[in-house]
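Hi support team,

I'm filing this because I wasn't sure whether my run with 3'-deoxy-guanosine-5'-triphosphate finished correctly. The job status page said complete, but I'd like someone to confirm that the output block is well-formed before I use it downstream. Pasting the exact inputs I used:
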Amino acid sequence: MHLKSNNLLGSEPVADSPEELADQIFSSPGPDSVADRGNASSGNLKALIADDSAIYRRLVERALSVEACSVAVAKSGEEALAIFERERPSLVITDWEMPDLTGIELCQRIRSTADGPYTYIIILTSNSQKENVVKGLSAGADDYLTKPFDPDELLARVRVGHRLIDLQRQIEAKNRQLEELALTDPLTGLPNRRAIVSWSSRQISGAARHGFAFWVVLIDLDHFKKVNDTYGHAAGDVALKRFAEILKAHTRHSDIAGRIGGEEFLQVLTHSTEEGVRTVVERIREQFAAEKFEFGGPPATITASFGVAGFLGGKDAPQFSEMVSLADAALYRAKHLGRNRVEIELPKDA
Ligand code: GH3
Ligand code: MG
Ligand code: MG
Ligand code: MG
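And here is everything the job wrote out:
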């Protein structure tokens, strides 16, 4: 059965059981009326239809049948709200008058859930007076259509919503990319200073609360200016990338390591003993120093110096910046004592 505009229902047909009547009217459901219509085109639009009238539920479902989306149907406002919370549909088409929760209230409830992606709401009602249109839109609806409705018009309006939802998804994806870029060092792909500071500041309060150890390792490549001067900046970059790989390979998933600028790196180790930290850091130092770089001439070696500072957990957690300063003092010592070495600034009460 194909619904044309002249099939519009001006008033509710009288029937003992609306469900039954609806079933009669739409007795041969075409392939379109299958609940899940897949997620073609710009992808898995979930729609929710809320109406206490079985006829209108079917009519709206029919109108949506050519749109690529999956459809959930609710017979009341409360049911719609429950489905909304579970499924988070991106499109809601709701009746105004329903026995438990009105479409307006449903709108307000949906809008008050601030988290999650945007939901496009169309109110569908026989209530066409201007002030009600205003009321619906100010309750948070995006669009408003009066019953009886033209299925083509509803579909056109749904597509406006679909376009808006798609655009919003694209913006969100771009924002996520930008956020990631803002936290990544482009040369090495490691977290940058900002990412390390934000992660560490959170972790250090965890170390205080839950009493686990927190170690900061500040690393500076040795005589790196000379490396650049002798082999060129591109060669210097190769060495920085190689160091980043070694550092990453020696960093647990639950810890963090990154490049904080120039030829300086920072690693944070949690839940480790001093001996454990010393072992890891010595391994990084040895492995990097053992690398033979082929920069055109005879194999070149490059070294790095390490300054370590620790907090063993418990009350009076230092600021992350204080720990970095302590690590910096240890690094300064490592440079003075001849470079290519690890110096540890022991925790105050260790
Ligand atoms: P020290 O052992 O005392 O640390 O000596 P150094 O030469 O490493 O220290 P200095 O701070 O004087 O020089 C750091 C050099 O790192 C200078 C700069 O050319 C180089 N550098 C900083 N960022 C980059 C980069 O992104 N790529 C390359 N190739 N070199 C960089
Ligand atoms: Mg109703
Ligand atoms: Mg430096
Ligand atoms: Mg240096």
